[in-house]
Amino acid sequence: MTQQLETSRRTPLNRARVLEAAVALADEVGLEALSMRRLAEALGVVPMALYKHVANKDELLDGMVDVVIGEIAPVAGAGWKDAVRLRVLSARQALLRHPWARQALETRTNRTPAVLKHTDEVIGMFLAGGFSVDLTHHVMHALGSRMWGFTQELFDAAAGSQEAVMPPEAQAAMLQEMARTYPNILEVAGVARHDDGSVVSYGCDDQFEFEFALDLMLDGFERLHGRHWSSGRGQ
Amino acid sequence: MTQQLETSRRTPLNRARVLEAAVALADEVGLEALSMRRLAEALGVVPMALYKHVANKDELLDGMVDVVIGEIAPVAGAGWKDAVRLRVLSARQALLRHPWARQALETRTNRTPAVLKHTDEVIGMFLAGGFSVDLTHHVMHALGSRMWGFTQELFDAAAGSQEAVMPPEAQAAMLQEMARTYPNILEVAGVARHDDGSVVSYGCDDQFEFEFALDLMLDGFERLHGRHWSSGRGQ
DNA sequence: ACGCTAGGTGTACGCCGTACACTTGTCAAT
DNA sequence: ATTGACAAGTGTACGGCGTACACCTAGCGT
């Protein structure tokens, strides 16, 4: 009976369960708030117990990234363009489910099997489409992080995010100030000002923007491929 | 005399000096190794003294990013394409001088005046070139982090980095293993295998790759602009 | 019956950011 | 010349972090 309790209380914990719990915790509290101690607590275990299953925190993060990458759907039977497009958009879906994964991928320099596999498959799509090795090389560089379904949105620019922390009249004043200092940003950000000075909108469809950029690149690739572009640097 | 010593020993330290020292220290030891304590030590001061000049570490990082952005050269008088190109490549030079800045920029979500100014100027170049507000909006999204002169190189893929840690025969064996598992990566990465199995090359000109991608996008933008592309979503 | 081993524990160390209360050096107003 | 406000720098302390290291213990193959 005591035995029973103990066995039930401690389904012995393995690497997969640790990673799964880590992913869930990061989904919940974000990446900065994810600590070995907190993860251990969530698993009902003492911090050092985790180290029997992952070498250290870095390796934990690698494992978590691998879990997310594992969620990317495979793509079968399509021209290179559709294949890449679908694969990348699927990667995007996976990363959107785990907002912390983007940052983890950015920071991480380790090439885990899952990372290599995805890369290899995307490369394979271009090669199968008849791209030269040379062009494929540059194309992959150009894709960069977009291969993972994200681009950093450093251009989140507009007023849209420090909303609600200040009274509306202060907001309006700040907007006027910004309009004077950074006129172009405000114009392009899609901020609409009503006659009364209030701010509306700032509508920005991230998915649209992502596909816009992705298709721009794919079209560019297609054009270069069609004209048998070469970097003229051997290979 | 004592006074003299003291005044000379403590040129009183101000925000600019703190940021400057922080940038220098990060250049030297990297971003993860940059701590308030270590920075204070480098300045010959007790850690808490820094807090009279920066609010906290986050604000310090923002300030450091601003210093780097301040190094981006202004661009005057050129068509939009050349102007953007020059500005972005100048940003790239600034970021290359401070390798930590890329990560700092990626992580940071705060929009400091320097960040906004750069963004505003790049936008201004497109608008001055006759781009519609609509197209400019999407174009900026597409540029993304490339506006800052970098793209993450998640595709550093090949064997080229864990060199030298293992004996050459182990290296060759690993390469063979990789060639079997990830054939496409190896082919495209520019790894050349000699008959004796030794690995050479892996030549990759980052600057070339960056300009390849940048020009691909600029050409794409130009084409869309030329045909009066519109997203068909108002604005 | 016994010892090996994998999994979990407990303690401890050195680092981190920073809150808070303090001294001290400078200078303007009295 | 005295004072007192203020900015700059100090010292101590707290809670959190990753993780090294020694230890325990349950279950298993022999």
Structural notes for this entry:
The structure is a homodimer of 235-residue chains. By secondary structure, chain A is mainly α. Chain A is 59% helix and 3% strand. A two-stranded antiparallel sheet of chain A has the order 1-2. The N terminus of chain A is likely disordered. Chains A and B meet through α6, α7, α8, α10 and α11 of A and α6, α7, α8, α10 and α11 of B. Chain A binds a DNA duplex (30 and 30 nucleotides) through loops.
What features would you highlight for this structure?
mainly alpha; 2 strands; 235 residues; DNA-binding; homodimer; 11 helices
SSE order and pairing:
The structure is a homodimer of 235-residue chains.
Chain A (H helix, E strand, L loop, with lengths): L1 H8 L5 H15 L6 H7 L14 H13 L10 H18 L2 H8 L5 H16 L4 H11 L24 H14 L1 H7 L1 E3 L5 E3 L4 H21 L9
Antiparallel strand pairs in A: 1-2
Helix pairs in contact in A: 2-4, 4-7, 5-7, 7-8, 8-11, 9-10
Chain A binds a DNA duplex (30 and 30 nucleotides) through loops.
Helix-strand pattern of chain A, N to C? HHHHHHHHHHEEH
Pair with the biggest interface:
A-B, 60 and 60 residues
Estimate what percentage of residues of chain A fall within beta strands: under 5%
Low-confidence stretches of chain A: 1-9, 157-164
Describe the oligomeric state of these chains in a short phrase. Answer: homodimer
Helical/strand content category of chain A: mainly alpha
